[in-house]
Amino acid sequence: MTTIGILGAGRVGTDLARKLSAAGHRVTLGVRRPTETPAPAASPHVALADHRTAARTAEVVINATPGHTSLERLAGLRAELAGKILVDVSNATHDAEDGLLGDLRYPGGSLAERLQAALPDTRVVKTLNTMLFTVMTAPETLGTPPTAYLSGDDRDAKRTVTGLLGDLGWQPGWIEDLGGITTARATEAMILVVPHILRRDGFKPFAVSLAF
C-alpha cells in the first residue's frame, strides 16, 4: 500500500482517487475547502484535505491541477514535496478561441521540466498526459492497446510509478519509458493533436499511442 496525495479534485483527480483507493492505496484528495467539499460519490474511502496537507502526508503526490497554474501552485509546496515522488499528469497550454487547448505554455520545454527545476528535492515523473482522462483509469476500454509514456530522471521513482500504472489497469507492454525528464517536452507536445481530434470526433476515449 502506498500513501498517495492527489492535488486537484476535478474529473482527473477524482477518477484517479477512485481507482487507486479501490486498489488498496491510502488516498488523500487535495481540495481548496476540505470542510465544504463532499467526498467523491464513488470513492467513500478517499480522505479530503487541503493541498498542503495532502502533499505533506503522502509518499507519492499526483499533480492533477490545471496545467496553466500547476507551476505556481506546486512551487509553493516545495517543503511539503521534498523527498516525494511527484507524478505530473497535466498539460500546460493556452486556450484556443473555442475553449479547447491551444498553444503550449512552455514551447521548447515542458511543464514537467519546470516543475523539476522548481522542486529540486522532488523526483518528478511525467505520465498519462497523452489521452482523454477516462483512459487513465480504464486503458482496457480502447480497441487498440494504448501507450503510457514515462519521463523522469530517477529510475526508482519511475519503477514506483510503473507499479501504480499497473494498479490503474496498464499492462507492462503498454508502458514506454522515454528516459529523463527532458523527454516530457515530446509527450507534452503530443497534446497539440488533441483539439483537432476532439473537434472532429467529440469526447470519445482516445490515447496518442505507439504502434509497432
Describe what is shown at a glance.
The protein has 212 residues and is an alpha/beta fold.
Q: Can you describe this structure?
A:
This protein has one domain: Rossmann fold. Helix content is 34%, strand content 20%. It has 9 helices and 10 strands. Helix 7 links the parallel strand 9 (148-152) and strand 10. The model has no long low-confidence stretch (mean pLDDT 92).
Which terms would index this structure?
212 residues; two-stranded antiparallel ribbon; 34% helix; 10 strands; alpha/beta
SSE inventory with pairings:
Layout lengths: L2 E5 L3 H12 L3 E5 L16 E3 L1 H6 L3 E4 L3 H9 L2 H4 L3 E4 L4 E3 L5 E4 L6 H8 L4 E4 L6 H5 L10 E5 L2 H13 L7 E5 L4 H7 L3 H8 L11
What integer value in Å does the Rg equal?
16 Å
Q: Kindly, what is the distance between the CA atoms of the first and last residues, rounded to a whole number of angstroms?
A: 34 Å
Name of the level-1 CATH class? Alpha Beta
What kind of sheet is the major sheet? 8 strands, mixed
Low-confidence parts? none
